[in-house]
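Worked Example 4.2. Consider the chain below.
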Amino acid sequence: MQITNKIHFRNLQGDIFGGVTAAVIALPMALAFGVASGAGAQAGLYGAILVGFFAALFGGTPALISEPTGPMTVIMTAVIAHLTAADPDNGMAMAFTVVMMAGVIQIILGSLKLGKYVTLMPYTVVSGFMSGIGIILIILQTAPFLGQASPKGGVIGTITNLPNLIANIKPIETGLAVMTVAILFLMPAKVKKFVPPQLLALVVGTLVSLYVFKDADISVVGKIPTGLPQFHMPYFSASQFRVMLVDALVLGMLGCIDALLTSVVADSLTRTEHDSNKELIGQGLGNLASGMFGGIAGAGATMGTVVNIQAGGRTALSGLTRALVLLVVVLGASGLTQNIPMAVLAGIALKVGINIIDWGFLKRAHKVSIKAALIMYGVIALTVFVDLMVAVGVGLFIANILTIDRLTSLQSEEVKAISDSDDEIDLNDEEKALLDRADGRVLLFKLSGPMIFGVAKAISREHNAMKNCEALIVDLSEVPMMGVTSSLALENAIKEAIDERRQVFIVGASAKIQKRLQKFGIPQMLPPDHILMDRQEALQKAIFSLQDMPLDKNIYMTQEPIS
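Applying the procedure from the previous section yields the following structure tokens:
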């Protein structure tokens, strides 16, 4: 495959420094997310290396840093928990296969050039499921934060076991977790410029556990296997295939959204424009490779990307540098990570969960719109207690229905039927005079704006106005688009007029609208000279068609009809 993200060495120093800085940030996050997912710290590291390397090499956002993220880890946790419970022997192999399948889905979406559609999602839904994911991440860190193993059952299992977890709290490990969170929250901004707070919290927490509580029984990461990761063959189970496919769709789509939203952030910081489709292919290749070698799924990471750009990273070389630095850790320096307390990693992951929650919109959603707030809260509840796919699906459905209802109400106001020269339609003096002369026997039926399916009801509603007219003029001069449902409603209105022996004229239809009318056979119902481009001429012909009202031939305009 051709490398789609050009790499140059004109910004070599900035890219290397940005990559090294991003690697320093990535190390504690990868370990924390690997442990949180249930796959182990090494799976987080492998994911950070492989997703980051291939996404940088083949992606479409030069400065993007890709690695396991909070949202992806939450889904990965659920996937591993379900599959290992269903098949303890092969569950982890199936989970890594789901990561591969998610990568293939992303590659397909990118190859079909669907990248631009991925992020077309109402903000209320995006905010709701991101906040829900943040809440899930916080809840799942409760047990390790209190110094205990995570209970089965995910979010519900943790909540129901909360009294037991609190009763068996391990003060030393909880103290380390609290200290970690305190460092992350209270670290001065001036210090953050030189030392990433996650790395400082990791180092301080580990040193305290080694030297202050050296005799205490503290859960630690343990030794990570050195050397290259082992290849994992895809493993499918007939009984779990449907579940695996749905999980892969959720993981793949969330990865697309996560990566492309971060790409927008990168664009705003670097004043460049990313290629959505190439980015999805790069993300897909990264997740495919990660699953093959026992890594968890990843996506574009906002924090890593921002740090990379602020440190000088501008091209894919920064992402490649970051991946290589992490690879060195895995190959030869993994002994440095074996004594890291699990409680410290839980504190880091909990802080990520807090950051994911959209606090800004939560505080003002009810002030902006009650309906928007209800959608957001509903998506949060469904994400936390039901399922992410259900949450997004229900949220999108309700948000789109409300949007369509608003658009329909606005567009319905543009469906107007008049038979005299009032002010509802902007007419010139000649047109007003012609309408007045018709004395209510000619009805001008004017449509304006996009005729979406919801407007069909407004078109049908105006049937009653046609009862007393003898000629109908359908003005489409301000209609840029007609949907199928609205076209059918217009066809019915015209058929009804023809059946009642009324003269029907169509005026102002653009080439695009004419093609749509042709497909419904509407022009074939009418004489060729009844399809015009000028409204005044249509009014003149309509009046002339009324046999007992001859029109002054001197003002009759001749113009070739549009066929």
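The longest helix spans residues 241-270. The chain has 25 helices and seven strands. Compare this with Example 4.1 before moving on.
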